[in-house]
Amino acid sequence: MAKGRLRLGVNIDHVATVRNARGGANPDPIRAAILAQEAGADGITAHLREDRRHISDADIEGLMAALTLPLNFEMAATDEMQKIALRHKPHAVCIVPEKREERTTEGGLEVAREENRLAHFIAPLRDAGCRVSLFVAADRPQIESAARIGATIVELHAGAYCDLHAEGHFVARDAELERLREMATYADSLGLEVHVGHGLAYDTVQPVAAFPEVMELNIGHFLIGEAIFLGLAPAIAEMRRLMDTARG
Ligand code: PXP
């Protein structure tokens, strides 16, 4: 049974990537966030990376000031990021692993091995009223640990599923999709809210959107790329349509 309308969080990091390629102010991620809001996004996601390669501190301030939609603030589990999150108190924080050399967030958070540290790390964020999400692989021990330390949400990493699809490995892709489905059900059974993100595009979104336990999808890179061809609002509207159709 579907638990209501599936939310779409639009990740605007790569508007900032294009801006930063030249410096200056254009294109403005805040303007993109406002447009996404008007186009039917249910939330905005932005990742303030340690190296500030896309979103900047000023962008986070601007988003907090300009948005009426909830901001999902993606961050690594560092003291610096915790201070910034506690200053802004966004609607949600999504804790992600971060490696300087990676092109994007390649894997899930190692919650099981770092349970104690993460429990202490998220406690003040929860106390400040932020919904705490942990970005994890579709892996039972990681999900169990997330529940044990009191996370509100797990966001399941869809990267492997999307990569296998793009590479044409359809048997392996279907196995990965099944793993995501099972782990969405499992996380839900532990009382965690389930989100999915990373790498989703028009041709991969629907099977995931159909999982009844999934409450939110966070999608960025594909939508910002598609905006070059369609415009941002139509690109988001098409994603919304595919999600709603799959949810049926
Ligand atoms: N969710 C999380 C936790 C992420 O780290 C990212 C990438 O920053 C996304 C969703 C969005 O992924 P993509 O840009 O590939 O759609």
CATH C-level: Alpha Beta
Q: Describe the main β-sheet briefly.
A: 8 strands, parallel, barrel
Strand content is: 15-25%
CATH architecture: Alpha-Beta Barrel
Strand order of the largest sheet: 1-2-3-4-5-6-7-8
Overall tally of domains: 1
Which topology does CATH recognise? TIM Barrel
Give the CA-based shape.
globular
Q: Summarize model confidence as the mean pLDDT.
A: 96
Low-confidence stretches: none
Q: What hetero molecules are in the model? A: pyridoxine-5'-phosphate
Q: Give the CATH superfamily.
A: Aldolase class I
How many individual β-strands?
Answer: 8
Q: Calculate the terminal CA-CA distance, rounded to whole Å.
A: 11 Å
Secondary structure class reads alpha/beta
Percent helix, as a range, is 40-55%
Question: Helical element count?
Answer: 11
Radius of gyration: 17 Å
Order of helices and strands: EHHEHEHEHEHEHHEHEHH
Explain what you see:
The chain has 248 residues and is an alpha/beta fold. The chain has a single domain (7-247), classed as Aldolase class I (TIM Barrel, Alpha-Beta Barrel). It contains 11 helices and 8 strands. The chain has helices at residues 13-22, 29-38, 57-66, 79-88, 115-127, 140-148, 159-166, 170-189, 205-209, 221-230, 232-247; strands at residues 7-11, 43-47, 71-75, 92-95, 131-136, 153-157, 193-197, 214-219. An 8-stranded parallel beta barrel has the order 1-2-3-4-5-6-7-8, surrounded by 7 helices. α4 links the parallel β3 and β4. α2 (29-38) runs parallel beside α3 (57-66), α7 (159-166) runs antiparallel to α8 and α10 (221-230) crosses α11. The model has no long low-confidence stretch (mean pLDDT 96). It binds pyridoxine-5'-phosphate. Pyridoxine-5'-phosphate is lined by residues 11, 13, 47, 74, 94, 96, 104-105, 135, 155, 197-200, 218-222. Pyridoxine-5'-phosphate binds at residues 11, 13, 47, 74, 94, 96, 104-105, 135, 155, 197-200, 218-222.
